[in-house]
Design brief:
Number of helices: 3
Oligomer: single chain
Radius of gyration: 35 Å
Number of strands: 5
Helix content: 10-25%
Amino acid sequence: MVMDASLSRRGSSKGARTAAVAPAPINVAPAPINVAPAPIDVAPAPVDIVSAPVTSSQAATEIPWTRIDLDLYEVSRGGYIVGYVEVVGAVFVALGGARYDRAVEVSQHLTFHAAVDVLVRRVL
């Protein structure tokens, strides 16, 4: 035998739903908003590219490496070979020296650019 229960009894979901719909009013005054005008940025004066002096950061725009093989890169500075970067798994090995067969391991890095940077900045 199946009995139907009324949903309007105390403790039913219908009663809980109507109690949740009508929350108690909250008296909170909104805080005043102060908006100050933003300062106006003035653009820098235009630079004449032809007569502007070349800085050291602009002169160092050459790419210091050349791909030799699938996992081997040659690094040069000032037209001279300073070393090689060999890819071994997930590690980049920096090898210092002008000849690959005589190059000596300088360091190991997790990024290619760090390995190239070590060779370019290396004091010979």
